[in-house]
Amino acid sequence: MVYESLIAVVESHLDNLTNTWVQEVKKSEYLETYKRLSDKELKLRGNILFTNLLNWLLKGASNDDAAEYFKEIGIKRIEEGFPLSEVYYALYLEKKILWSFVAWKDEISGILKAVDAIEFMTVINNYFDLGDFYIIRGYMNELFKHLASTEKFSEDELKKLFSGGALYQESIKKIKEKMYGEGLSIGLIR
Amino acid sequence: MATANLSKIVEDQIDDLKSEWLEEVRKSEYLTTYKTFSDQETINRGEAVYSHLRDWLKEGATNQSSETYFEKVGAVRFQERFPLTEVHYAIYLLKKIFWNKIDWRDKVTGAFETSNATKIMNVFNDYFDLASFSITKGYFNELLESISEDKKFSKEDLKQLLTKGKLDPEVLEDDEFIWRHV
Questions:
Q1: Average pLDDT of A169-184?
Q2: Cα(A69)–Cα(A76) distance, integer angstroms
Q3: Are the beta carbons of B83 and A78 separated by less than 8 Å?
Q4: Domain spanning A2-186: CATH 1.10.490.10
């Protein structure tokens, strides 16, 4: 029910969602790099954001797909020279706009009930929280590789900059399994 | 009403919030850096986020005060050598724990009213989402600051690394090409 309704909202308002995102980007004091893009490019990126969300919903909201997609976004954005905080904020705007359209639907039609709203927000939060996570991972991993390739940092220096923990180097292959397990246990992944 | 509702949760349920946070950290395979702290230190860190939420709500929930606070958190976490994803995961857990404490019913009518629920969600999400955003800024500024101090990696190197892509580097000002506070 919630997935179908979300699909309907995104499908029927794709242009509006995209245009609103573009407007918000242009208004934002945080998105200097995005604002350097042409209107056409900005609109294309906005459209891709919402289209990917739509595809994710249509394909059954697979967390594997979302993780792969967002990891790629993180890698691409560092290659393009975007600060990570801007990428994060652009995604935050997408979420805000999507939510405003869901809430707006309620005001106009009165269809949405409180319990549905809570369920909507759970799905939306799951998608974007997972997205933030994998964007950061893709971005940081790519930054690590860039810096390592300069050969200006020793292994110890890189380790100091990019704290190991559960993220980098030998543990990188295991992290998806770990996240998946923990995501299941706390309800991030259904 | 939404801010009062959320603020009251922190005040009434702070002990539960703290203990659930500690429990989540302890059972998480992912929060390896947090696990190096004592129980009390771990609790203190979770409590700080909730206490700041309470104060932020009482002060009118303005983004600026939260931004300053969490940028500093991000910078400190970098100095403490936390992976950024781990800090985000911790915020995510704190958010999730708090989400489960919210009573979505309207305080006056006692009913599940959509307008009440959406207002609470807006405030709730703004706090935690902007916290993650500001932490990212603070963390990255600190990371880049530490690279800048390393004489082996010059400003020009950074410029080449971070502006080599699709965007035209000609339009970027030398003095502000990247990593200033956005």
A1: 45
A2: 11
A3: no
A4: yes
